[in-house]
Amino acid sequence: MSLRRLTRLTGRWALTVMATVAWLGAVGGLVLILATGTAAFSDPSPARMWVVWLLLVAACFLSLLADRSRPAGVLARHAAAAGWEPTAPGRPQWPWPEPQSGGTIRVRRAWSFTAGGLPVTAGDVRWTGRAFGGATDDADGQGVVVVIHLRGPVPSMAYHVPFERIGDSPLLDRTELRKAFLTRRIPPWTVRERCLYTVEPANGSVTPALIDSAVRRALVVARLLDLTGEVRAGEARTSEASNGEAGAGEARVNGVRPGDVRLKAPRAEGGADTAG
Question: Which of 75, 96, 173, 226 has the fewest CB atoms below 10 angstroms from its CB?
Answer without folding.
Answer: 173
